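Entry 14. Ran structure prediction on the chain below.
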Amino acid sequence: MGWFKKKKKQEERSCGNFDFLTYNSFGGYSASQALLSSAVYRCVEVISDSIAQLPLEPFKIDSEGYKVRFTSHPTYKLLNKEPNNRMTRFTFIKTMIISMLLKGNAYAYIERDGKGDAVALYYIPSDLVTIIKP
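Output, C-alpha cells:
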C-alpha cells in the first residue's frame, strides 16, 4: 500500500513523459537533447527565422534632429549584406539567435582593418569560448 501512494505522488508531479531528454550533469539539457523535442525545435526555428528577417541598419541623426539611414557607415554592409565571405546575413543572424536560445549566449569575432573599422563578423560556437571574470 505504501509503494502505491509513493508511485502516485511521483506521477502527480510529472509534467509529461520527457524521459528521452536525459538530464545532464550540469543541471539542464544539452542543446542537441533539447532539439529532440519537436516543440523546442519548432519554437527555436520560428523565433530565429523571425528575428533573422528583421532589418539591422545603422542610423545617424541629421542636422535637423531626424534619424536617417547611415548607408556609408562601415558596418552597414556587414549588418545588411554579408557579415563574412562564408555566410549570408540571414544565416549569420539565425545562427547567433539559435546559439542564444539554446546555450544562453552568442559570440562573434570582429575582424578589423588598419583603421579599426569592422570588415567581417565570424560566428564563434559557445563551446569554444571561455569566460574569464576579472
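Residues 38-53 form the longest helix (16 residues). Will compare against last week's run tomorrow.
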